[in-house]
Design a protein that fits this description.
The structure holds 2 protein chains of 2 kinds. Chain A is of the alpha/beta class. Chain A contains 13 helices and 11 strands. Chain B is mostly helical. The chains are: A alpha/beta, B mainly alpha.
């Protein structure tokens, strides 16, 4: 299947975690712990004083436990199938709640933790779950986002290769080419993104630095195919998110596409975005995977993090990697190659879609209210 | 393998299992769990690493023999003979 084309996260695993806990846990847990701690620090939460029964962790994932299982099987193979060498840590490493659970262990959080399996919509779904738990009153602080450790996983690569959906290029920086006529698949990369979510009144009360306000979201299902997307359902998903936010397409400044670089996926989403925003001449469209590859379960949350600065600097970051735009992927106001400076950016719609036909859209807006 | 070499084998394994610990101050006659941040899962790891690295098997009924460094060495040395 060729060489690994995209990168692993570069971060200090031991900044917030002991070597022993890292050894016990998983890479996805380690990424989650780092992200959660950084999020708490940057949100200026008074962590020691916070009631940990009112904090929850909600992380989306594409998959979890594959790399740990593969490693154990490899060890087994190397040791003449001596099954007694199977690690006692295998189960706590591979249970589906592992990444969020490791965050609770690390931070002493005793509220709920869910790791939400949502294929490559995971990052958005983690955010949505966090917002829902806040609205339900289940928690007062939600650490929410997504994480992926797929780049360490042989099976994910091999399956994308078998599917004809694994990007390959002699120059790894050219592998991820969403929307390009010559695109040949996904460049898998590792990532994580965790946000501190609070109800607005709580954030205002403590004078929190507010990055953005989540005002709309939607998750729906294609009910069509295991892997092929359904643009009609994607349109419905985006419109449902807009209705929740009480917005129209013309209110949206930036749409961040999921755009993974697969042949069918990009064409379907381009069709969906054209249809969903046909009424709006002022909406600009970009995508992020040309910059960072496909961070799988992290993608929704991480790509949103790449767009949130636009609420401040009004720059729409461009989609990169496109040598020649696929005519079937042409969209009005698609920002390519160079950033686009707008007069103002107030509203971003962030798409993330995944296998089994899970669609998600999150809308964030610049917070423009005044402190009470 | 003599007793000192077996002690080093055990130390090497513990250093991988409990990488945050300072192993230079271990007192061989005292319980390892009293001196180091080791729990029952860590002892399972020690047993597993002995099997993986040195083909030495420690049956479950003998796990108490691994309580101190001294008991580890006296129990394991014949197995490394």
């Amino acid at each position: 299947m060729g060489q690994q084309v995209a990168g692993l996260c570069e971060f200090d695993e031991f900044k917030y975690q002991s070597k022993k806990m890292r050894r016990r846990g998983t890479r996805a847990g380690s990424i989650s712990i780092w992200c959660a701690n950084e999020a708490i620090r940057r949100a200026q939460l008074d962590w020691p004083q916070l009631d940990k029964t009112r904090v929850g962790v909600f992380l989306g994932i594409t998959e979890h436990g594959n790399v740990e299982t593969e490693n154990e099987i490899f060890e087994l193979h190397q040791n003449q199938l001596d099954w007694k060498l199977w690690s006692p840590h295998h189960n706590p490493r591979t249970v589906a709640n592992n990444p969020a659970g490791e965050v609770t262990l690390n931070l002493g959080i005793v509220g709920p933790h869910y790791t939400l399996g949502a294929a490559c919509a995971g990052g958005n779904v983690g955010l949505i779950a966090g917002a829902q738990q806040l609205l339900l009153g289940e928690v007062d602080v939600a650490l929410a986002g997504g994480v992926s450790e797929s780049p360490q996983t042989f099976g994910i690569y091999a399956a994308f290769a078998a599917q004809g959906a694994l990007a390959q290029h002699e120059d790894p920086t050219q592998a991820s080419r969403p929307m390009c006529r010559t695109r040949d698949g996904i460049a898998i990369s590792e990532g994580g993104a965790v946000y501190v979510l609070e109800r607005l009144e709580d954030a205002l009360k403590r004078g929190a630095p507010i990055l953005a306000e989540i005002t709309g979201w939607a998750v729906n299902s294609d009910a069509t195919d295991f892997v092929n997307p359904n643009p009609e359902r994607q349109v419905q998903c985006m419109h449902q998110a807009l209705r929740r936010a009480r917005l129209t397409p013309a209110d949206v400044d930036i749409v961040n596409m999921h755009a993974t670089g697969t042949g069918a996926g990009d064409v379907a989403e381009a069709k969906a975005v054209r249809a969903a925003f046909v009424e709006s001449e002022r909406t600009y469209v970009n995508f992020t995977k040309g910059h960072i590859g496909h961070t799988m379960g992290a993608a929704g949350a991480l790509e949103l993090a790449g767009n949130i600065p636009a609420l401040t600097d009004h720059q729409v970051h461009p989609g990169v990697g496109v040598r020649e735009l696929d005519p079937e992927c042409a969209i009005p106001n698609l920002v390519l190659h160079q950033p686009k400076k707008l007069a103002d950016v107030r509203t971003i719609l962030n798409n993330s879609f995944g296998m089994l036909g899970i669609n998600s859209a999150v809308i964030v807006q610049k917070y423009q209210g005044e402190a009470p | 393998m003599n007793a000192q070499q077996v002690r080093q084998v055990v130390l090497d394994i513990i250093s991988d299992i409990a990488p945050d610990e300072d192993l230079n101050t271990i007192k061989d006659e005292l319980s390892l769990r009293e001196q180091l941040d080791l729990d029952s899962m860590d002892f399972l790891d020690i047993v597993m690493e002995l099997r993986k690295r040195h083909k030495v098997e420690v049956p479950a009924q003998d796990y108490p023999q691994l309580a101190t460094m001294a008991s580890c060495v006296s129990y394991l040395t014949p197995k490394f003979a």
